[in-house]
Amino acid sequence: MRKFLRYFFVLIALIVAAIVLIPIIFQDEIFEMVRTESKNHIKGEVAIGDMSLSLFSDFPNLTLSVQDVSITGEEVFEGMKLIDAGEISVEIDLFSAFGGNNISIESIRIANSDLYVLVMPDGTANYDIMKETGEVEEEEAPAEASAPYSLSLKDFSLDHVNLVYDDRQGGMYVNITDLVHDLSGDFSADVVDMATHTEIQEMTVSLGSTDYLRRTNVEADMDMKYTASAQKIELGDNSIRLNGMKLNATGDVVMGDVMQLNLKLDAPSTEFAEVLSLIPEVYYNDFDDIQTSGSFAFDAFVKGTMDESESLPAFGLNLKVNNASFKYPDLPAGAENLNVEVHVTKPQGTADATVVDIPKLSGLLAGQPVEARLKVDHPISDPNIDMYAKANLDLAKVAAMVPQEGLSYSGMLRTDIAVKGKMSDFEAQNVNAVEASGNVQLSKFKAETTSFGLPFELDTMNMDWRPQRVNVSALSGKLGESDFSGSGTLDNIMSYVMTDTTLRGRFALNSSLLNLDQLAAAAPAGEDAPEEETAESTGAVRIPTNLDMDLSTKVDRVLYDGMTIEDLRGKVILVDGVAALEGVTMKTLDGTIGMNGSYDSRQLQPEVLFDMSLSSLDIGKALQHLDMFKAYAPIAQSAVGKLNSNFSLNAFLGSDMTPDLSTLNASGLLRTIGVKVEPEVLQKVATTLNNESYSRLLIGGSEIDFAIENGRLNVQPFDVTLGGKKATVSGSSGLDQSIDYTMTTKLPINGIKVPQEVAALGLTGDIDVNIRFTGTATQPKISTNFGDITSGLQTQVQNAIQDEINNQRDNAINAVNEEAEKIMEQARAEAQKVKDEAKVQADRIRSEARSAAQRLRDEAKKQGDELIARAGSNPIAKTAAERAARELREEADEKANKLVSEADTRANRLESEAAARADDIIAKAEERAKIEN
């Protein structure tokens, strides 16, 4: 007996040792295998924080747990996380794992995770993460060696998971916050009795521009029976709650290549409060305390088959609200006599057969009557609309019906519009086939919200509806200190509202004050945005891609980044997320700025591409307010005077809407007018030369040819005056504040400090001096070089004698040179005028060509979109239309590029001819002047 007990305890000890040692022995090997296989098969960056393997947590099950797992995309999805999981754990029946043929997974749990699925407009998806692999030939195992293999799962759970599904190709958006889900059942059996429990804190579902669910709280318990052999799911006892509305579902679904659906949905209760709860603002504001009356009826069904074709099963939905009312006990107003009737029907077939009919929508809002109706058929191919809406509302009374957290508004809204006709007739402006009449007026409107730090006021907005377009005859208001007024037209508002197309229009907008600093400070910071949306919340202005607007703007005064801009004028064209600026001019910094170019907000970092002209700008103020000058010319911080410039600029913008200087590329010509500079670095020059007059620099009428590339400013040689003597400067400076400039000049030897061996010669006259500036703008280094004096004293003596002879000769011809200089000055001015006029003409040729090229591209895009729209949902027709649209765009791009290229050639030729004429003018003047050197 004692021997038996001894063996028994030894066996127990071995089992315990195995339980402890097996995970320890194999954990690192399994962890490395997971890392390696992830790297080999998944595109992008896969990060795994930690992994554990245990038999203790749920013996005899083997628990594999992985923490902090993330998959970050690459290429167009670089920096975007597809998944960021706090924990993923799998429990496997240990004995089934050793058996090999039937692995039983007890549970899979995913907790504290974020999942962001993005499908781009071209169909590229961030979940396409598997690397492509070549086919692997496998040896066929002998028939007798094959054995059945199965995998069973008993429980699957999601614990506090957030999900965003953003399908920009299909126009579908789903946002699920704090999902808790549990699915249980023995999936190894042929007939599986499944039980599910789901809780969602908030769910938003949108198709196109329509929200079908918004911030809806969901709870569902579903019992289902799944028959594997028949691929059939039958619904048993179940309940679904959407906010306060409870639903029951019955029916079955047969899976397969052709899916068969037979589902019914109805509401077991008929209290109006349940329907009311679907409005988030109502549900999340003391919903249990609302006083309600009235009833409703609801039912829906889906029946038919669904496969890969465009045919969809039949479905229907009916909702009817009868004589309902609601009122918050602490608020003065409520809603009464609410009557709503909604019918949605579609037979088996395409979605284009859907009919949405809302024959009745009426009631009293705070005692004010409203009524409307809507019917839409053929919503896909060519929506046929019959719509009517009438209301006359004091919005302050409406606001008093529901508690508004962080929002208040007031004003008068009057609407009385009727629209009837096919969308194609509206688009074609076939006025004989459509009806559109009425007016929408909003006056004395004021709104304030805690999410935006400024009040919005709309004094008046008057919209007249006509078959051809909607005329906005009056528009005026304020946003903080900024005011606006204007008028214009909206060409296709019906198709924009009903089919989510691009809104086209033209407006003239005026403002006496636009305070951009105040607007930027009031905008929400976006810190609560999901990580993948951070780029959209950085403060950069995003231009909607579904706008095609032509705006003529006049702004009397703009406040921006400490600058005051006056008389802002020009045209702004908004197309496909890009703002094109044409002929924009403004007065600021004691001068004038002109610009043509574009602002592209479609990228994560907006991009600007401008041709700029600066006229008579105060150089000191320009260096103070314009980051480009401040960063690249720190040595000129003390400059006074004026500057003119023409240059091209390309850069990406940062979150503060200013250029990211590390991405800046620019080139052009800068002209100085009476500029004087006394930087600290020149004081070092004066000290080195022992002459205070060399502590200031005059840049009178110099032309500075500059270029900025790869974070460095390079300037070609230009003339300055140092201590009354002509000097030439060239070199570069960088964003890192490093400087590398050389100044070459002739200075009087008796007026500067020179080496002792040079002073011992007793020479007179001017001497060649090279001054090198290196180091940084804040800690510059100065070095001087006095030519070959120190290495050739005899030559210097001879040069001194020759200099004296030259001085005598120079005195004799000074009078001639003075007159010659006048001739040359006049010739240089005339030559510059020729080049400037040519530059203006050349810039105009380039600008007009680019505008014409953009119009070609826009028209091709428009025609392509129309082809795709007419193709509807027919996949063959749609594929052909997409190919035709692509060919239209490619042909337009080819024509546009050719147009721009020809314009550039003409412009370059014009400038070259002007330069030749200017050189000829200078040459003839030099011949007349005969200036001695």
Protein model, in words:
Residues 802-905 form a coiled coil. One of its GO terms (biological process) is regulation of protein targeting to membrane. Keywords: Coiled coil, Membrane, Transmembrane, Transmembrane helix. It is a single chain. By secondary structure, the protein is an alpha+beta fold. Among the domains are: 27-129 and 149-170, no CATH class; 815-929. It has 14 helices and 39 strands. It has a 39-stranded mixed beta sheet that branches. The N and C termini lie far apart (125 Å).
Provide the descriptors you would attach to this structure in a database record.
disordered N terminus; 14 helices; 48% strand; globular; 933 residues; alpha+beta; single chain; 39-stranded mixed beta sheet
Averaged pLDDT: 79
Oligomer: single chain
* Total beta strands: 39
Q: Estimate what percentage of residues fall within beta strands.
A: over 45%
Low-confidence runs: 1-21, 134-150, 526-538, 788-794
Give the distance, in angstroms, between the N- and C-terminal Cα atoms: 125 Å
Number of helices: 14
In brief:
The protein contains 14 helices and 39 strands. By secondary structure, it is an alpha+beta fold. It is globular.
